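Question: Send over one sample?
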Amino acid sequence: MSLSFLPADVRSAISNLNYNFISEIRLRKGQPVIIQYKGEYKYLNLFGVSSSADNALVCGEIAPIVNSATHGSIFSYAEQIKNGFITVENGVRIGIAGEYVTQSGQVIAVNNYTSLNIRVPHAVRGCAAFLFEKLLKHGLNSLLIFSKPGLGKTTALRDLAVDLSATRLYNVLIFDERNEISAIDGDGNGYNLGDRVDVVRSFNKKGAIASAIRAMKPDVIITDELYGDDDVLAVKFAADCGIKPIASSHICDRKLLCKLPFDFYAEIKVLGEKPVIYDKNFNIICGCGADDGSRADGFGQ
């Protein structure tokens, strides 16, 4: 995967590492470059990673990196930037910090960039096998995967899409608001999700899901990061149409989650461990902390 938008010294240092173990790259103006490698945050130097900031690479200006990532077309990413991130080729998501300009309580622009959090996606085949075996192998159930950020929800959704398409032969519709699940690049290439998967990208789940259901007649809808009442109404519409939604959320408050239209909930607590599966009343079904709390190799990477 290309990270060609990064400064040359950062690219050179990363070339000394195993790309499969890189999860995040944090760039802060005037500060040492920090990388999440093999699940731990380390300083990046010319030869690799270290737990010490001595000899670490120091990040310069942030704006040229954003300009490079957008191929000089920052304005075409304006809607994404309002939400504090951009998603570039191959599903690489770049969180942006800086001066947030608001109007009527809404962010309308981000100026004077000060730091970036570059999240590097990976396709980990089999990482969601536990969820598939317990909930989806013999029939469809709606499912919400929830956890704190960075524990592998999107990776699990991607793996479930492949299982449902290839193993169960369902027509799968992915609503990929941030282009992270399918990770389609400018040339139309992306992860191989199977020949029964359709992808819709839009910033309005509520309207786009309703239209896509009529147009594509899916058996199941997979969507990332439910947030706000409109997103909830979108998945409820799908459920009311007899289509099983599978989604993720950063919300961890069970009082809020139990009001959502899902048959089961899966909580990822620790990177690399099986999730805990709950029924709609939040009774534990299985997973870490239940009777069968063994590890699921690779889950959530």
In short: The radius of gyration is 20 Å.
